[in-house]
Amino acid sequence: MSRLNRFRIVGSLLxxxxxxxxxxxxxxxxxxxxHQMMCMCSCSQILMECNHVGCTYSDxxxxxxxxxxxxxxxxxxxxxxxxxxYGTTVLAAPTHSGFDRVAWLLPYIALIVxxxxxxxxxxxWHKRRVPxxxxxxxxxxxxxxxxxxxxxxxxxDL
Amino acid sequence: xxxxxxxxxxxxxxxxxxxxxxxxxxxFRRDSLSAxxxxxxxxxxxxxxxxxxxxxxxxxxxxFQNNFSIAYIYHHSNIDLPIPYKFATLWSGQEGSLLFxxxxxxxxxxxxxxxxxTDERLFAHASVIIAAVQVFFLLLLTFAARPFATTPGxxxxxxxGLNPLLQYPEMVIxxxxxxxxxVGFTVPFAFxxxxxxxxxxxxxxxxxxxxxxxxxxxxxxxxxxLGAHWAYYVLGWGGYWGWDPVEVASLLPWLTGxxxxxxxxxxxxxxxxxxxxxxxxxxxxxxxxxxxxLTRSGVVNSVHxxxxxxxxxxxxxxxxxxxxxxxxxxxxxxxHLRTEHHLESLVSRESSFLFNNVLFLLxxxxxxxxTLFPVLSEWIQGHKITVGPPFFxxxxxxxxxxxxxxxxxxxxxxxxxxxxxxxxxxxxxPTVGAIAVGILLIATPPSWGSVFGMRPWTDVAYFYSLIAAxxxxxxxxxxxxxxxxxxxxxxxHTGRGLVSSMMLLGHRNTRRYGGYxxxxxxxxxxxxxxxxxxxxxxxxxxxxxxxxxxxxxxxVSRSFTQDETPNYSSSIAILDVYRGGKLITTLYPESRFFxxxxxxxxxxxxxxxxxxxxxxxxxxxxxxxxxxxxKAHLNPLVSWLWIGVLVMLFGTVLALFPNAPVPVRAVxxxxxxxxxxxxxxxxxxx
Amino acid sequence: MILLVCGLLTVAALFYVFYIPTTLQLGPxxxxxxxxxxxxxxxxxxxxxxxxxxxxxKVPDADYATMKQSLEDEAAAIxxxxxxxxxxxxxxxxx
Lengths: 158, 686, 95
Fold this sequence. Notes:
Chain B is α+β, with helices and mostly antiparallel strands. Chain B is built from 19 helices and 10 strands.
């Protein structure tokens, strides 16, 4: 019940935010959408950030974007319009459907596997026993051992 | 001249080939000739450096003499190019930059071969490996990318000119720095592989290459930062990092190299992670070569203008040879890399280093994944897609924040074992401080400045910004606390004042405390970056007296002028900047038109107080009215990014200083304890 | 002219590479003693760090005792082997 409530609250909040965004002028929407697309003049810049003098693409594309938003198209309709005209490379990031989803998921899978792997390794290395590379102290007489330990202690005191 | 240049490169190839082949043969001979052959191989390596140096000098001289009979000079220079940029022609194109790679590599090899007395056998191995890498680059220069190829047909009167994007002071130092970093990783790689091949007992290769690796890392960091700085002040789009494949290519070895700098400590102190370290440096070197390949092969689209050519195949083959060599010697000698200790505790500096390393590698993987995903998508889906900044930003930020958290916690953990109690105690005040910073950022009125009055619940980007701010504060507080704690111990011991004790503390373990300073620099860099989601822009066509309002600033157009130089003509807008009705400064955004290349270029004008940058660009002119179009960006906190880089470099330099000796106490003064096995508290312990 | 320069450069390189007036011997291989001294330095460094971290309040008393003990054992073993090698070396030189 409480979880359901929480969903409702989150849902209505989201709705509120969406409505607020709708109520605000189109410029923020244009800016947001323009940041989700690339300029196609092969400058590899985000559409809204492309600033070549005499770039033949960015102005046209921005005008198309303005027109699309003014025509009352939804975000996905605007993006689809651009994909149709310029190809899939116009979107600045992989989409969330089909094979593109792999691009988004793999980093998080890698994160889980990586952190899990380290946690496992830490535990395993904590338990393992390692053979000594330098002869153990067992061959030493007690007197020698004490003397040498004392030497080490003196030489490393702060 | 071009003929001599080509010949000298051929000579260098022969000398490197000799240094590699005969040096390698000598390593496996056990007779008296072995020493003689090794010496000739060493000298051949030194001579090849001189040969490559002569070749580079010829190319630069040709640039100064406007010798357009050399195709490379014709394509990358022109008569009116200012003098410093004539130097830059050496690395501004494909062939020249490969020659420059080769020059730096043989330069490193030269230094290494001069210092061979340190450990002749190990240095001989490293020298052979460096010669092998050198052979590859000289083969490229001789057969695939010839810098001294002549211009076909009639001798041109003037050159095609240097790309205007590169005509900027940073461009004269950014590529050399980056290349010094890239190439520098060859040295620890050569020592690591050499030590593995000869089954060198102990970790001497790490001791020998420690400073080398740190210098290389510092130069690479500096190169990346200069690249960002150049992008910010030259490209004029208001940002400094665009996740372009070439930027990513420089970041990849930086990430693995940083992981390596941390994980070698595990080997030096505890004899652990030997296999990991060897592979980490193999991979770092491989990524340096891979980055060079990525930039030039045309596999991925990039703004960095290198001619796309067939040399990609050469790189693929070379990378395969590197991988095969590394795998072979690892499998053959892997028993040599046996670990010497187990982990005493789950909560220790050691385990934090493991997490640190995996996070660095994960970020590296994600960056590589995003860069290569378009290629993968084309294979599988049949169409190319773009993986741009929105992807990288949203995916790497959480990883980077985790790493920042670890940077804060790591220094509080003791080697071997840390009790949770002490961790809690040492963590308490820094955490309180970090939370206070968070509350301050939320509770303050937005009128205080762009980052104040944050609303982290409205956008995930703001949330990340807030977390980044708190974690950066946490890092700074824990490092400060660490200095204080250490200073107190020294002060209790020596009776000095706290400040001088902290200085002594740093001096006694320059590497650790230099490293902590680098951490502070890193935290400042995060502070510089975290303002990005709060960036604002405004654009307007400006007649005289027109005004743009952005944040607390008003830009008023005062005048508009034009200027001519032999190299370019420029249009400049003169804008007065007001804040709260008061004139603060005047900005001069400029648009240049380069005569030789017929290309335009913006030069932004930036006012940078610590809280935010006011970044103004001359975007263009309205064709009808002739009035300038001005775009203004308000970028919070960017100055901290550059400050952070400087602090980081300062820390790196600190870490390079030798440690002050710890005075060994006179034997008579030492306490005599009854039972030697009983744990004795040292003098001055409380 | 070009041929002359190229020829001179080649001769100079060959002369530098192959004219070695003195007789040469490769340096010694890494000895066990050198390896042990390196190890000793590492263990000493660890001991100093442990002392320091203890005094800085990062290590509780009980942990400090056991860790110090194990590090001192390690140091003692290395010191013992160094002493042994040194006495052997001395005996070898006398004989």
